[in-house]
Write a structure and sequence with these properties.
The complex is a heterodimer of chains A (about 210) and B (about 80).
Chain A (H helix, E strand, L loop, with lengths): L1 E5 L6 H10 L4 E5 L11 E4 L13 H4 L3 H10 L4 E4 L1 H8 L6 E3 L7 E9 L13 E8 L3 E3 L2 H9 L3 E5 L10 E5 L5 E4 L17 H5 L4
Parallel strand pairs in A: 1-2, 1-3, 3-4, 4-11
Antiparallel strand pairs in A: 5-8, 6-7, 6-9, 9-10, 10-11
Chain B lengths: L1 E8 L6 H13 L1 H6 L7 E6 L5 H16 L5 E7 L2
Antiparallel strand pairs in B: 1-2, 1-3
The chains are: A alpha/beta (about 210), B alpha+beta (about 80).
Chain lengths: ~210, ~80
């Protein structure tokens, strides 16, 4: 069972739910006020959107909602957690991932397709041996930030999941996705659920869901 | 007691919002272009805390600020007692 977490203002939830379905896995809604047992889920996904209208800071309020206590416990127990876009911002704010996501340096909301290079592939997240992916982005606050002296450590610890071939937002070292030190929490700014079939513009997103239970 | 919390992006963090405001100002008036030497945008949160004692009110506001109001990685905050 794959838990799909919804907050007020999450808006990629239906797409993610359907994407999980399409690759033959069983999705189940998780509400932001719920608590759950970590044994209830094989993996969790925090979809994109604008939780709490991005008030205060993107992801800040969602990160402190009741369900995140359960997500945090599950993450610490080794359950795979995938964050997409706003889900990435929430996981950073919840301190389950290092760093923060700031307003794009272009001063624009970016809606485009990007080419990703996978720096450290992961069996659970996109599959071992995955080299690259062509996925859409849609964000105004995707500029990954980390204090300068911690960047080398992030690369050395193989926590950099993927980078943009061409930087769309001023992100540090072109970073598009990172993982935690145990490599069971991962998140990226691009939207794999929007690339599930050729008619959508590409189907590279499929493997990000297919791999969740491998 | 009313307490204000002023949150600002750290100096080493590129403040794209402040940069956009600065650019607009400089494009619109010659005096701004000549005299404006910097512009950073933060936020201000007004808290009303049910504490009569000033130090207790500050302690509570600090707890609130640390809990959610600022991100220590990218921002700094200052607290001021208003009334």
């Amino acid at each position: 069972m794959i838990g799909v977490v919804r907050f007020l203002g999450t808006n990629c939830d239906q797409d993610v739910f359907e994407a999980v379905h399409q690759v033959g896995l069983k999705p189940k809604w998780v509400w932001h006020q719920d608590h759950f047992d970590r044994k209830d889920f094989d993996a969790l996904i925090i979809p994109g959107g604008f939780s709490y209208g991005d008030y205060l800071r993107c992801g800040a309020l969602a990160a402190r909602s009741p369900v995140m206590q359960s997500v945090s416990e599950a993450a610490k127990a080794g359950v795979p957690v995938l964050g997409i876009c706003n889900g990435f911002q929430i996981l950073c704010e919840a301190q389950l991932l290092p760093g923060a996501l700031l307003k794009n340096n272009t001063l624009r909301f970016k809606d485009d397709w990007v080419d990703l290079k996978i720096v450290n592939s992961n069996a659970r997240f996109g599959g071992a041996g995955l080299k690259k992916a062509h996925l859409p982005i849609a964000h105004g606050e995707g500029r990954y930030y980390l204090e300068q002296d911690q960047v080398k450590q992030l690369f050395d610890d193989e926590q950099v999941w993927c980078v943009y071939e061409k930087n769309p937002n001023g992100s540090l070292e072109n970073i598009a996705g990172v993982m935690n030190d145990k490599h069971n929490v991962a998140a990226l700014m691009p939207h794999p659920e929007r690339a599930m079939a050729e008619f959508m513009g590409g189907e590279d997103g499929r493997r990000f869901f297919e791999s969740l239970l491998t | 007691m009313k307490i204000g919390v002023r949150i600002m992006p750290k100096n080493e963090v590129l403040d794209s919002q402040g940069r956009a405001v600065e650019r607009t100002l400089k494009q619109n008036k010659k005096a701004f272009a000549e005299k404006l030497k910097g512009c950073r945008v933060g936020k201000y949160v007004l808290l009303e805390v049910d504490e009569a004692d000033k130090s207790k009110a500050i302690a509570r506001a600090t707890e609130i600020a640390e809990f959610v109001l600022y991100n220590p990685l990218t921002e700094t905050y200052e607290i001021e007692v208003l009334s």
